[in-house]
Amino acid sequence: MTTQTPALLIDDASRHYAGTPAPAVDGVTIDVAAGEFLALLGPSGCGKSTLLRMVAGFERLDGGRITVGGRTLSGPATHVPPEERRIGLVFQSYALWPHMTVAGNVAYPLETARVPRAEREQRVRAALDTVGLSGFDARHPAELSGGQRQRVALARCLVMSPELVLLDEPLANLDVHLRAAMEEEFADFHTKTGATMVYVTHDQAEAMALATRIAVLDHGRLAQVAAPRTLYREPATRMVAGFVGQGAVVDGVVTGPAADGRVRVRLFGAEALVRCRTGQPEGQALVCLRPEDLEPAPDGPIAATVVRAAYKGGFVLVEAEPQAAPGVRLLLRVSGDAQVAPGEALRLAVRDGWVVPEGPSQERLTPARE
Ligand SMILES: Nc1ncnc2c1ncn2[C@@H]1O[C@H](COP(=O)(O)OP(=O)(O)OP(=O)(O)O)[C@@H](O)[C@H]1O
Ligand SMILES: [Mg+2]
Question: Which family, according to UniProt (predicted)?
């Protein structure tokens, strides 16, 4: 990658809470470039908040190191307290002071840092302007919408000009429309400030929309870190394939050597050509099929039955069961004009797909292998 010092380096970091059976964060390594917008994605309990709290300094590490701008903040013999880390924090519960005005809330960290009054006022104005809240200075939090309150919290974080901003599910309290509007604001804010951002969410659409790269955590471990497109098209594990984007992960057999990034696979008794990493071995494999990889075709090689069809506006999302694999559910989209009903027979062609490098599911292999 780059030879520059990463803005944030999480190096083999672990945290095991006392009395719990497994580490909450287990040997995670991620480097975040200056100005990058990294999303931390994963299901509830996978360790996202713990990892963020480790970076912020609220959690000590049980192993590994965290450096910001080349300076070690957490390590075997180091633990810089949170207030000395110069890291901006925005959490889900934005905790504004209810008795203070908007301007008062935003000015608070500057007062704590003994910034002189004139400079303080100027920086508060600039921060409120950045989040689109000029003119709201004298309001109290109770007189604001949820989205506006969230923006005040963002301004309060911005006002310190942090080089690194950590956000933990900052939109989780907001309704769908407000979330969409705030997503744009975060993107704008990121462009305007050039700050390095680490953004925790369990909402993959939010992560896709905002992040330059997404790190997926699975039971405290880093499953994959990649650009949104790569994560969607080339998931490294079954978990990532299932968690990011729609589709199915199915068993197949690679029947020939990889060439030009593709291999032949046998799926439900039919042959298909799908994408794979270089050097994909032959044999049992997991194949990720996104809805756009499957197409109904009169002469398609896979016989299937429609299990469910849901009109989504513009298209119908079809769940289909291959006749050769009862219980497996494939997803595909058909034109909104098409009449598809459960129980109908369907023939499918596989246009594309991806061999998941992780290989067939561990739990269904003989457990004695490792
Ligand atoms: N203070 C704590 N003491 C003990 N265990 C904890 C503590 N905080 C979190 N955990 C456990 O650590 C694991 C990771 O929790 P964490 O809060 O980091 O998950 P998360 O990915 O942020 O989940 P969510 O999406 O629900 O916020 C969970 O199993 C959780 O129960
Ligand atoms: Mg959390």
Answer: Belongs to the ABC transporter superfamily.
The ligand with the least distance to the CA atom of 51 is 1
Q: pLDDT of 265-302, one tens digit each?
A: 999 999 999 999 999 999 999 999 999 999 999 999 99
Structural domain harbouring 317: 247-369
The whole-number pLDDT of residue 2 equals 45
Please report the pLDDT score of residue 50 as a whole number: 96
Q: Is ligand 1 within 6 A of the CB of residue 48?
A: yes
Determine whether the shortest distance from the Cβ of 17 to ligand 1 is under 6 A.
Answer: yes
Q: Which ligand is nearest to the CA of 216?
A: 1
Among residues 211, 233, 255, the one where a domain terminates is 233
Residues of the chain falling short of pLDDT 70: 1-4, 93-94, 359-370
The CATH number linked to 187 is 3.40.50.300
Is the residue at 217 inside a domain? yes
Residue whose CA lies nearest to ligand 1 atom number 26: 44
**Could you identify the atom of ligand 1 that is nearest to the CA of residue 220?**
14
Query: Does ligand 1 have an atom closer than 6 angstroms to the CB of 53?
Result: no
317 falls within a domain: yes
Distance of CA 51 from the midpoint of ligand 1 (Å): 9
User: Within this chain, do residues 113 and 176 fall inside the same structural domain, yes or no?
Assistant: yes
| Domain stops at, among 202, 233, 264 | 233
Structurally, how many domains does the chain consist of?
2
- The pLDDT of residue 154: 85
* pLDDT of amino acid 146: 81
Answer yes or no: is 239 within a domain: no
- pLDDT at residue 125, rounded to an integer: 94
Ligand 1 closest atom vs CA 200: 22
